[in-house]
Amino acid sequence: MQEIDFMNRAISIAHENVVTNNGGPFGAIVVKDGKVIGVGRNEVTRTYDPTAHAEVQAIREACKFLGSFQLTDCEIYTSCEPCPMCIGAIYWARPKAVYYACTKSEAAKIGFDDQFIYEQLDLPIEKRSIKMKQICPTNYDHPFETWKNSTSRVDY
Ligand SMILES: [Zn+2]
User: Fold this and answer.
1) Would the N or C end of the chain have less CB density within 10 A of its end CB?
2) How far is the CA of 38 from the centre of ligand 1 (A)?
3) Catalytic pick from 3, 16, 55, 126?
4) The pLDDT of residue 128
5) Cα dist. 31→73, 98, 104, 142, 156 in Å?
6) Is 81 a catalytic residue?
7) What are residue 48's DSSP bridge partners?
8) pLDDT at 153
9) Ion ligand 1 residues within 5 Å by Cβ
10) How far does the centroid of ligand 1 lie from the alpha carbon of residue 85, in Å?
11) pLDDT surpassing 90 at residue 113
């Protein structure tokens, strides 16, 4: 299979997701060595999970398949340019490439506008629309100190 075939697979997952009324019009797959190792579709509304975007679902399935929290040497094909949350998940998963079909501006035209989140990320914390405030009890950094000194931790 070639790039275009993998992208067609992601797009058909997205289309099927709408036809079956499963969720939003988004699909994604993770490919390693020419094989599909993870499939994801948007399941936000069906599972009551705002993080159930196609890319996140595909990353979860692929990582489980590999028994790894990294997608080393993997490629993600997604029917639409990833949102800020999925971009974050993608950076944590560290695949080697991401390919997308529809753009974020095309998604915005049908009501999936994530421009607001990009703008929020650029604002200082105190100017964001959702209140975010630091609270520091004594020993607030105890988990970090324990992590730094742990001899059994798994770095990632
Ligand atoms: Zn997303």
Assistant:
1) C
2) 16
3) 55
4) 96
5) 9, 10, 22, 40, 21
6) no
7) none
8) 95
9) 53, 83, 85-86
10) 5
11) no
